[in-house]
Design goal:
- Helix content is 32%, strand content 28%.
- The protein is of the alpha/beta class.
- The protein is globular, with a radius of gyration of 17 Å.
Length: 240
């Protein structure tokens, strides 16, 4: 299995921190977010990772290098990182040659969370936190019906029997990853480069069976604002 980290974005809501520091290199409890990812990869036996870079890419590449925590690293450069993140996934799809776990680069999480996803019997698998509290409607949600994920978006319009916040982590078999590659290429071919990754996932979910693992019992947080950093540090301290 290959890890693919989407780390091209600017992270404007964290400005001025992200004016000079890529989001994934923010220090949380004495380690960067990115280093925490690679510690988990090493522990779980993931030996290959691709990082899609863009904003302040030189700093990310200098920090991670060609190998980190025993994980070999390659890079894909998104020069259009200020557009919709679907172009980032389009670049990432160049590395779809194995089963993958694709993830945003701004989450602090209990190590058991990633282990649960990797070991899930679902070949294609989201993580779902059903204990989420909706604040402004901008939380990206995962909704399922009869065990199958039917939507992954901020606003759910389809019928569902379970719903929770998505963590931005997605495990896909090689076959399903190649189907996503095809869908994303169709968006790019139509010039729809300002679209979001979730728009392609909505189509994928109609074509492929994708399951989920509930993770509401494990601590995690996404880092979007400066106030999230001390919260993330408290979470990290719980499992170190």
């Amino acid at each position: 299995m290959k890890a693919i980290i989407l780390a091209a974005g600017v992270g404007r809501r964290l400005s001025p921190i992200t004016d000079t520091t890529p989001k994934c290199l923010i220090q949380v409890g004495g380690k960067t977010i990115l280093e925490r990812y690679f510690e988990n990869f090493e522990r779980l036996g993931i030996d290959s990772a691709v990082i899609v870079v863009g904003h302040l890419k030189e700093k990310i590449m200098a920090a991670a290098g060609a190998e980190w925590h025993g994980v070999k690293i390659s890079y894909l450069n998104n020069e259009r990182f200020e557009e919709g993140n679907i172009f980032t996934v389009h670049l990432a799809s160049q590395a779809f040659d194995d089963d993958i776990i694709m993830m945003d680069a701004d989450v602090i999480f209990h190590p058991g969370l990633l282990e649960r996803q990797i070991k899930s019997p679902n070949a294609n698998c989201y993580l779902m936190d059903e204990g989420f509290v909706e604040h402004d409607g901008e939380e990206c949600k995962v909704a399922a019906l009869n065990g199958r994920v039917v939507a992954n978006n901020r606003r759910i319009t389809k019928k569902y029997d379970r719903v929770g916040e998505g963590l931005g982590f997605l495990k896909l078999s090689l076959g399903t990853a190649l189907e996503l590659k095809k869908i994303v290429a169709e968006f790019i071919g139509r010039g729809e480069t300002t679209k979001e990754y979730e728009d392609a996932l909505e189509i994928l979910l109609e074509r492929e069976v994708v399951g989920f693992e509930p993770v509401g019992d494990l601590p995690w947080t996404e880092i979007d604002f400066a106030d999230d950093i001390p919260k993330a540090a408290r979470i990290a301290a719980q499992y170190e």
